[in-house]
Design goal:
about 170 residues; alpha+beta; Rieske Iron-sulfur Protein; 2 domains; 4-stranded antiparallel β-sheet
């Protein structure tokens, strides 16, 4: 009892779905699912629900009494990710320890009175101004507050800047 190809094909379609149709439908279903997932990611990106107008809460780190820092001195606060620099005129500025070139940690060279980046040799003065490129802008800084003679640094707010300005200093 030999069966022709046509008879076998008719029997397969009459019995239900054949393998080729099953895999075709499976690929279509997976394509639809992937499209839905991609759409969901795009929608959640644009409508994340975050309120963009709120200011982050202040995270004040108490550095110490203002008179404990000598004029022209730099004190490292590695836990707070900054250096507290007291200028010769008595002003305070909290400089980020991240180089503005590629983000390497700068270190203070007391004998040369400068910050140096070990990655590409960018150098900055005590105010955070660029002395030696490749860094193109001054070190970022954190806001400083002085309350009752105590220096406090808001480590929750990092401020970018292109250059040093006198208004960035806080006086006791």
């Amino acid at each position: 009892m030999k069966k022709t190809v046509q008879e076998i094909a008719e029997r397969n379609t009459s019995d239900g779905i054949n393998r080729r149709d099953f895999f075709g439908m499976a690929w279509k279903a997976l394509g639809i699912l992937a499209g839905l997932e991609a759409s969901g990611m795009i929608i959640s990106y644009f409508f994340s629900g975050k309120n963009k107008n709120t200011n982050p809460p202040k995270q004040l780190l108490e550095a110490g009494p203002a008179n404990a820092f000598l004029p022209g001195s730099v004190t490292a606060f590695m836990g707070g990710r900054f250096y507290l620099a007291r200028q010769q005129d008595g002003g305070f500025i909290a400089l980020s320890l991240r180089c503005t070139h590629l983000g390497c940690s700068v270190s203070w060279e007391e004998n040369k009175k400068r910050f140096i980046c070990p990655c590409h040799s960018s150098a900055f003065d005590i105010r955070g101004e660029v002395l030696n490129p490749p860094a193109a802008r001054a070190l970022d800084y954190y806001p400083v507050l002085i309350e009752n003679g105590v220096v406090k640094v808001d480590i929750g707010t990092l401020k970018e800047r292109k250059t040093f300005r006198k208004e960035q200093l806080i006086y006791a």
